[in-house]
């Protein structure tokens, strides 16, 4: 299956090279007025049946501009970047395309596949953070949704174990303590209990994302990864003490985090805010149990950022929109820029919040809509966790992000399966980064 | 013939040429549907690959860098790891699958009630979705809850291996699953080969007092020589390009313990966005497979002589 895809990409690239002749020097700098006649712009999207956000943005923008038609071009969610790179190369990519995460932003920007949209960013509401899309003082995309990692917790299981809920002041040590305590207490009550204190999914980001965002001085590009050690030591300890299902079991049984938390197999789950909408949907479909839950800020590196009077540090890549520089129709460029401005603004934020999505803009107006949704926990801590955080990128943008993340993913599987000690794994990763990248 | 060629009557020569021309056209038209597909989807990209490997490639713009990619390859530790793991897989998978396939074929090449059922059963893994079978095998191999280790503990193994989550056992686990998956296909090829061995040879050998082992060694194996060669070549090539099974079974892990060359090419080309470098690795893999296949041909020729 991958092979055919590879062949198709190869073919597409070969053909495009022959046909397109590669011309992208038609930059239009003057701003054309917003057209009054009918205009169609094409917007990249994925999994339309299960991802309503694209339709929401399309409907919202078309309502504002009746002469504009937004045509959604559907891609495969898992192969989105591969397909987009092929389409950009072939010259058939949509006018506006999504930056699904930051891992590939460098490739697009450095490859000259993103239009300078600094003028759009200048018009966005105050508080919009587009800095991750800036290169040499120019912005190349705008964020429209910004999920951040928080801590989901099951209040019923906490009550059953007799452990106090997270209160917003937790550091990772408090979290580890609670995870182990809940597992142990539930086991005391019922020796056959298979419910764990927490579930940590297999992704490297569940450890490394927090370590990178929260540790002072941590830098992905430095080639020095000692800052990962405390985070891994803690997780390996939780795993050994039975506070969470171990990585090997999770991998071989292919556990889904949605089922682990949704079916009450774990009392806590560090996860991105996108899971709120999933959990609500699964509750109504019966794929998840109905129980009391809430979200708390991600546990912190130390007490300096923990507490309701502070801004907790967490991570998450924004989802952004960029413009394909191959459009050479000035009117279309104006419309595309207007679309970006709309999508990153408050109106789109409200529309997205209304369907359970965390927009880039989490102002009070938007938060009010989000927490008015049926089933979203409305306690103060959940509101605090959702709207207040310093979210650092999971994939800081530079040339070798993808390579280094792959190397650190190997470190992750080594340490989590107990194949190597964290010290040895860090030494291996540092040697590999030095060998392959720096 | 020579005289005819020297002075052909003019219209005979023309007729013959037109006949040849017509035959050529007919021949081409027969292979055209296949060849056009092959040329467009395989040959052109492969040709292009030999160009891409010498460039830094980005969105259709290729900057010529000469041998840079190959120089980088020489010092790339991850490449050597992948090379070693690929060789490990080939060396483990080829003999094991060969023996299993041949054994199955001989076992199922007799009149036996329900033989069709057993043959089908042995062929089943080969036509099963690779993703589905990787999920099931992963669950079977699960270190604490899997039936494989439950059985090992039952027969007295105190510390059964972690299989797909243990770097020392992940490759053996992959080889086992690969063998289980492929043996049915090669069994089919061997079965076809076995049917071509005349039964008189076995009868004669039996009359001469040959034991079962001697019959296998002196009748079956020589009779299967051509099949064996074909199976070995195809099996070796397929083992060198193993990718899908490992991607879904272990994703190259834990660490890099099951990272193979095809997977590395995929990572470099599609995840780390370095198609030029991925092209260079592809070319190295291409020449390794070519060299091994040529050696197999040479050995086969010598054995046949």
Please provide a written account of the structure:
- The complex is a heterodimer of chains A (438) and B (305).
- Chain A is an alpha/beta fold.
- Helices cover 44% and strands 14% of the residues of chain A.
- Chain A is built from 18 helices and 13 strands.
- Chain A has helices at 2-20, 53-64, 80-90, 105-110, 118-122, 155-161, 172-189, 205-214, 229-240, 247-252, 257-262, 274-285, 330-343, 346-353, 364-371, 380-387, 401-416, 422-436, and strands at residues 39-46, 68-75, 96-99, 134-135, 138-139, 142-146, 149-154, 196-198, 266-272, 293-297, 313-315, 318-323, 390-392.
- In chain A, the strands form five sheets. Chain A has a four-stranded mixed sheet. In chain A, strands 3-12-6 form a three-stranded antiparallel sheet.
- In chain A, helix 2 links the parallel strand 1 and strand 2.
- The two termini of chain A are 34 Å apart.
- In chain B, 75% of the residues lie in helices and 3% in strands.
- Chain B has 14 helices and two strands, in the order ααββαααααααααααα.
- Chain B has helices at 2-6, 10-52, 68-74, 77-107, 115-127, 130-141, 147-154, 170-195, 199-207, 212-223, 225-240, 244-249, 261-271, 275-304, and strands at residues 55-58, 61-64.
- The longest helix of chain B has 43 residues, at 10-52.
- Chain B starts with a helix and ends with a helix.
- The mean pLDDT of chain B is 90.
- The interface between A and B is large, with 50 and 49 residues.
